[in-house]
């Protein structure tokens, strides 16, 4: 037994001595040449080792290589794909003798990885030789298990210290003309074996800001074998913070997402180097919490709570990029949406020439419809099925109540169904269909609204406060064009408008009947014409809105109107005829009663309408004769034409 112990001790000494002496018997130059040859055969690239190569076998098997570089293929800007300042690999010796691989340390010092896409879209990380070798190896090993060689497998791996020190990654896209760089990459990985948690912690620097990264994968072996593993991931920087806690599998992840962005504008500026091209002062704070599920081409976010500036919302979203076009499905419920912080500031109103009451009328206003080709490509960018509900909506001064909208977009055709719509005490619904599948864009819209408080709505929507009352609208319109002007010029349709129990402000038609001159020269904003009912129908043909049956009904007064609103040049040509009548009926009364008629011409550009009496009719004496006849009838007989002076003085209309 003593001799056996002596023999075993001697063998141990010989083994240790061999491990110490062996590396010195293997020339470093031979190792360098062999590695270079093998890399060339595997990748087709040139590997250069300019530094020292050191090998040792005790107390661990280690290889240290300095100044290593792997070349780029021809046709790329850079000469190298990868350059390492140093590589230090140490394997525990005894586990190797038992068929296991345990990494004592694996350190990459100053690695520089230069990824590049050339103008033809090729990536410098694609190894053609490696592809063919992989196919050949796959053929040779077909039908054999991965463990048939008896060598170490991935399940036998154990990591000690794995570290990247001061790494750098660049990505150049010659096709797109872009270049991105990430540096100061420092990352440490801890994995005792595949049955213990994998922990990673480190950071990197992008556009001058440090991003800290931590990850904890609880069951690495389960992940490798195709099952799931708990995952806890955190990414933090000054401009964005992200946390994900859930389950991960190969190619998929799901769990609780928590994303916070202190400033959307700041994030875009940091990420792109350019300020966000968006009007307004909004797009600052942004936060999302919800259940994330991502795998393959599909990403879904459910039970989401979203906050953008002062906007709070909840919803569900699902995106699939695997089809011919990306697909988006979802819903969003917003408590109160104020879009004013996201709109450009209003431009100051330009001075208008001429007064609204000039006798000569206003000149036709210049159209501001665009002649540029409408770009409808956005309608073909994706397929969408999305539902939006709003507790309230504020756009400039317009305030919209509870609303519900569903948008469906397929193949460049969009249908927006407004099933609920509350507006200034009124309610309605509508549908808009846009067709961008052909050049230009097609429009088909219907809209119904009732019980609208007209005065506050028109004041907020257009700064127009001339009409008060309760309004109702029923509109149908359709058209198609390659530009705004062409679209407006093609519009056709019909509609009806009614206002009840209101007033027309700025003009007193009853006073006009009594004294045409003072009706247009006195009173100003205090003038108004009360009515019980005002309404009519209209048709639209080639962008021209035509009305022939406008009627205002009020006690002792009836008003009839007819004319056109030309949408392409944005002008109005309209004739209003008020009549003083012997009737106290208002709403629902007859509008064809006989009486005094004094026509009024309304014409000019939209932004500068003029109101004036029909001077041609007055010159012919029609209005004066009608008024004389009414007075004769009132007095029970003829006045003889000039026995009773009339209040109308045509000369006063011309300043005489």
From TrEMBL:
- Superkingdom of the source? Bacteria
Q: Which residue numbers delimit the AsmA domain?
A: 1-242, 297-550
Composition skew (Basic and acidic residues), residue ranges? 133-145
Which residues does the annotated region (Disordered) include? 133-152, 343-369
Q: Name one GO cellular component term.
A: plasma membrane
One Pfam assignment: AsmA
Q: Residue ranges under compositional bias (Gly residues)?
A: 353-364
Entry protein name = AsmA family protein
Q: Name one GO biological process term.
A: regulation of protein targeting to membrane
